[in-house]
Design goal:
mainly alpha
Length: 95
């Protein structure tokens, strides 16, 4: 293989590598765009972790002293969630 052929082959390979880099950059941008909502939700959850730990500890202590109150609100919450799912399922164009 002559020097000219090697230089030409090297230029071809560099062009292929450059195109692959561009493809990877585009795929990365698309991935970050499609997962941005989940990333922001996760960051919000992680930033609130300290307050969630304190709140859950206080709720555990309080619910141990008043178990019927927590059970009553859990039932109400489950009922509201079930009602919401039923309404959403039966409304036209909600999917």
């Amino acid at each position: 293989m002559s020097r000219r052929e090697r230089e030409q082959r090297k230029a071809e390979l560099l062009g292929i590598v450059q195109q692959q880099r561009l493809d990877l950059t585009a795929a990365r941008r698309d991935w970050l765009t499609s997962t941005a909502r989940y990333d922001s939700g996760w960051l919000t959850l992680v930033s609130m972790r300290r307050y969630l730990v304190i709140g859950s500890s206080a709720l555990a202590i309080w619910s141990a002293r008043n178990p019927s109150f927590l059970l009553r609100w859990a039932k109400r919450g489950f009922g509201a969630w079930s009602t919401w799912r039923l309404i959403r399922k039966n409304l036209p164009g909600s999917r």
